[in-house]
Every structure is written in C-alpha cells, then in structure tokens.
Design a protein that fits this description.
Elements: H1 2-24, H2 42-46, H3 56-60, E1 79-84, E2 94-98, E3 101-102, E4 105-106, E5 109-114, E6 124-130, E7 137-145, E8 151-162, E9 172-178, E10 190-193, E11 205-216, E12 222-230, E13 236-250
The structure holds calcium ion (CA).
Calcium ion (CA) is lined by residues 85-87, 118, 120-121, 123-124, 242.
Length: 253
C-alpha cells in the first residue's frame, strides 16, 4: 500500500515537473517580451475622457452675440425730404435768439404761429423783432438725424413774406445748415436782404427763397437747420415764413 502511494506521488511529481518545464522553457525564437505591448494602450485611453469639458462653454456663449445686431436699425436713410406748413403746431421748430440785450433789459422778440397771413393753408410762422439794440438775431431751428460723418447736399426753400420796400434799411436773412447748434453770432449763416423789391409801401409780399448748401455731419449724426432774420436797422420789423421744404442728399459716406 505504501509502495503504491509513493509510486503515485512520484509519477505526479514527475508529471508536474515535466509540465512546468514545457511551459517555462523559452521558445526556439527566444522572443518572450511580447506581453508588455498589450498593457501600454490602457493608460493613454484614460486621459482623453477629460477633453469634453472645455467644449461645453463655447457652445452656449455664442447665442448671446446676435442680439446687438438689432441696435443699428434707427440709422437714417442717406436721402430725405421734409415739408412744413405749421397748420397744427410748430412741427419741432424751436424759436431761438441771440444778441437781444439792451442796457439792463432785453428787446422784445417773438416767433409764433399766426393766422394773419399764410402761403399754404391758414397758418405761417410770424417773426417779430423789436431791434432797438441794432443787433438782434432771431430764428427757428430744427435738428435732423442724418448719417454721421457724411457730406450732404442740402436744399432749403420757403415762402418769405416781407414789407421791406425800397433800397435801404432792410434786415438780413438767416438761413443755413450746421453740424452743431449755433451758440454765437459767428456760427450763424447770413444770406441776402429782406427787401421785397417793391418801389413803394405795398405791404407784405410773399417771396420764394431757396438756398443750396454742402453740409458735413460729425460723429453725432445731426444737422441743424436755421431760418430767421438779423436786425441791422434800429427799428421793429415783422416777417412771415411758410411752406418750408428741406431736402438732404448724401454726397459721400
Ligand atoms: Ca401754412
């Protein structure tokens, strides 16, 4: 019995030893390091999984950008025409004056809507200047939205009623287009006299006035039109203006 057991153990030990020798022995080629290649791809594949995080933030932010594109819509067109008859109101024409001081008070002046006479409809603007300081300047002013830094050809026409007959002692017409609202006498634009070409006192006559200008807007995109009179004779005078037409045509951009 003991002999049989020892024989079985001996056979088993021999068999195990033969088996281990057949697997541990190097192959005839001697290329055993091949298993190390299978481990190297494991570590690089783990790092790319962090990359999706940065791609989330750029995709959400561009949706905010398109909204500012709605702001340029108020930009005015390069050309525009306007007409004024003052039948209902002043139509945004603002009365203004300069050099109205006289000693310790100011001279009388006014620019109001009046139904005394009109060239179109029933109402015109009435200009009254009690020019007793011999230097008063009164006008109406209208601001227009135009394209900034653009040159315009501007035509201003209107009906002008004057009772200034004869050859002397007339006032001077103010009409111009300015990039800024005038603040001094030197910034106003003066034209011809207020004479109505009559040889006798025939009262008010309606005259057609028309002036062309080249005006340059600045970065504010505004042009200021002024229409009025400058008193150059020491007396009181009245004038009327109606049917004002203004055309802006952009000549460069
Ligand atoms: Ca009118």
């Amino acid at each position: 019995m003991i002999l049989v057991a020892s024989t079985i153990i001996t056979v088993f030990v021999v068999a195990v030893g033969f088996y281990s020798l057949s697997n541990s022995a190097p192959p005839p080629n001697g290329v055993s390091p091949s298993p190390t290649l299978t481990q190297s791809p494991a570590s690089p594949t783990a790092t790319p999984t962090q990359s999706p995080n940065p791609t989330i933030s750029p995709s959400s932010s561009p949706t905010i950008v398109p909204s500012p594109t709605q702001t340029p819509t108020p930009t005015p067109s390069p050309s525009a025409s306007y007409s004024y008859s003052f039948e209902e109101n002043m139509q945004d024409w603002e009365p203004r004056a300069l050099d109205t001081d006289l000693a310790n008070f100011t001279i009388d002046w006014s620019i109001t809507r009046s139904q005394e006479r009109a060239k179109d409809g029933n109402t015109a603007l009435k200009f009254y200047l009690g020019n007793y300081n011999d230097k008063g300047k009164i006008w109406v002013e209208h601001n227009f939205d135009v394209q900034p830094n653009t040159q315009y050809n501007v035509n201003i026409s209107y009906a002008f009623a004057s009772a200034d007959w004869g050859d002397a002692n007339h006032f001077i017409i103010i009409t111009g287009v300015l990039p800024k609202s005038p603040q001094s006498r030197d910034e106003l634009v003066y034209q011809g006299s207020t004479a109505n070409s009559a040889n006798s006192d025939v009262g008010f006559l309606w005259l057609d006035k028309a002036y062309n200008f080249v005006a340059q807007s600045d970065s504010t995109g505004k042009l200021h039109v002024v229409i009025g009179v400058w008193g150059v004779w020491e007396t009181a005078r009245t004038y009327f203006i109606d049917s004002v037409k203004i055309t802006f045509v952009a000549s460069s951009s």
